[in-house]
Amino acid sequence: MTTPRTVLITGGNRGIGRAIAEEFVAQGHRVAVTARSGSGPEGSLTVIADVTDAASVDAAFTEVEAQLGPVEVVIANAGITRDMLLLRMSDEDFTEVLDTNLSGAFRVVKRASKGMLKAKFGRIVLVSSVVGLLGSAGQVNYSASKSGLIGMARSLTRELGSRGITANVVAPGFIETDMTAELAPEQQDAYLKQIPAARFASPNEVARVITWLASDDAGYISGAVIPVDGGLGMGH
Question: Is the pLDDT assigned to residue 180 strictly greater than 80?
């Protein structure tokens, strides 16, 4: 049985983030989620926060600490896309994605690390993507932000590893969420042909890998990139 922890998941109101929150709740942890709107699953505490704003992140942590105790596990999951071919991509399309997906993770991890250093324990999981290493046409901004998380996790490991803190990356492939459901059937078929497993993942298949990384069993794993992509990104 893993030790119950105080867990904070950014972007925990829908999609993969919500599934992660549900899995942590089911395993008996104290769970908080940040959302810009909406709320997390039953049994979790929802705090409104915008990861592009350090003051907003700080306020969210302060509220979670007051209600659930110091954050021991942080899952940086909040992310956006602004897909566009390079020549049509505006500076704003690029910087907004980086500011949420990469700088947002930095703000969250920086705030979380204060309590983790004090406790000499922490689990940091950054939610990347198969395209962080595989690349994807029309996603220069998104794939750059997602590969940046890998450098972040590895630097955090070197910086914080001696204090009982791990930092890992999970790189999902195609997951059954509202986003993939909106793809045209022929587009879905084209993607499926590239996946050796010949199916999309369910969100809880990603969630269970993340809860395992946060568990007592994974204490000696840090700086790793764990793909949950059915083999799509092999060799990357």
Answer: no
| CATH code: domain of residue 24 | 3.40.50.720
- H-helix segments, the chain: 15-26, 54-68, 91-98, 104-119, 131-134, 140-160, 178-181, 185-194, 203-213
Paired residues of 227 in beta bridges: 171
Domain total of the chain: 1
Whether residue 65 has pLDDT greater than 70: yes
Q: Is 142 a catalytic residue?
A: yes
What SS3 state is found at 74?
strand
Average pLDDT over residues 62-73: 98
Give the pair of three-digit tokens for residue 21: 């929150």
Instruction: DSSP letter for 233, please.
Output: T
The residue segments making up the domain with residue 57 are 6-176+203-222
Residue 14 buriedness (CB in 10 A; 0-12 / 13-18 / 19+): middle
Q: Which of 94, 142, 174, 200 is catalytic?
A: 142
